[in-house]
Amino acid sequence: EFGITCWSLWRTRNDRVFAGKIITPKTFLHRVRAWLPIVRNALDKDKLIHKPCPPARTEEQISWKPPPPEWVFLNSDGSVLLETGLGAAGGLIRDHSGRYLSACTLNLGACTITQAELRGAVEGLQVAWDRGHCRIRVQLDSQCAVQLIRQTDTEEHHCAAVLARFMELLSRPWEMLVQHVYREGNRCVDFLASRGHVVPFGFHEVVSSDLMLSYWIMYDCQGISEPRLVWNER
Fold first, then answer.
1. For a tag on the chain, would you pick the N or C end, based on fewer CB atoms within 10 A?
2. Is residue 118 within 8 Å of residue 166, measured between CB atoms?
3. Which residues pair with 107 in a beta bridge?
4. Residue 164 belongs to domain spanning
5. What angle do helix axes 160-170 and 143-150 make, rounded to 10 degrees?
6. Could you tell me which residue ranges the RNase H type-1 domain spans (predicted)?
7. CA 75, CA 64: separation in Å to the nearest integer?
8. CA distance 192 to 204
9. Are 71 and 23 members of one domain?
């Protein structure tokens, strides 16, 4: 109440000095009383004093999680160098124990990051189909790519060609789920996508004996996590 009264006095003084408006003491009191419930309601509604706002993000530990039995995971990723605009991608297929089934890396040439993300998924799915897998969960760390896959009106999008390939693969007689994961849970294919920048143009299979890939697979199988600030749902 004291603060509102002081503010009202200051406003009344300014009105008199700069606008020549003069009000009676009775009008002044009515003005103060009219403001009191408005300010009280605002403070109570947003809980600005009695209850501080919760943090927008909280830290969570993120790690790779294996698929259920009888399913395989295809983790895929894309990468584009800012300096050159050249893209690369990678894909890795694993079973419910985290065991390597197949992997690939691609040098894509000039493309956008979303095109690279989708190419990694498409080429990985083609490998999965060729290997005879019939229940597959696709994981990408690009929310934009996942949203595009779930849309139906993408004919005019610059990724329309690769999206059409994805939809053709999706329509085949197998079970497929597409999921978004955080980058911290997609570390193996982050490595494979980066490798795509240093191999010749095109598709390259990465064998299970590859030392760096074996290291990252072991890293995931041990459940090693990394911290990430995750947005809280409001």
1. C
2. yes
3. 88, 202
4. 61-231
5. 70
6. 68-198
7. 10
8. 10
9. no
